Amino acid sequence: MLELVSAYQPAIMALIVLTLIVLLQSFAGAYFCFVKGDKVPGAPLTGDHGELAFRAMRCYQNGVENLPAFAVAIFIAIAAGAGASLVNMLAIVHVGFRVLYMAIYYAGFGKPAGGPRSLTYVAGWAVNVLLVVIALLALM
Asked: CB-based contacts of 85: which residues, under 8 Å, 6+ apart?
């Protein structure tokens, strides 16, 4: 078991890093939305992409929505015995796209839809799909 974990250590570390980032975003979202009094906890999110508080909370929500799929893709790829170097590389690339997505979103760079944020989201999503595909191929 230890050999299996060590072979996939970069992928597991990538998952840990992304999990920590999403957890830290909850504080950023809380600060920008609730501490500053811009939003009401538990109420539906209001506002638009022009507001930092809105972007911070939506960025956090997007991270929460996407983290489980990434975690499952990593664990399935490891359990299937997919090539460790490929899984490790894809995991790191996925985290890179997620961090870039977050930076673009917080900065408010580009259009709300169809801009660089959307492109980085789709690229990260595609890497996640690729992780699942290589896991399926490893099982065949």
From this structure: none
CA dihedral 110, 112, 114, 119 (to 10 degrees): 70
CATH architecture classification, 2-139 = Up-down Bundle (1.20)
The angle subtended at Cα 89 by Cα 83 and Cα 14, nearest 5°, is 110
Q: Which of these ranges, 27-41, 59-73, 77-91, 102-116, has the smallest mean pLDDT?
A: 27-41
Domain segments of the chain as ranges:
2-139
Q: pLDDT digits over 50-90, tens only?
A: 888 888 888 999 999 999 999 999 999 999 999 999 999 99
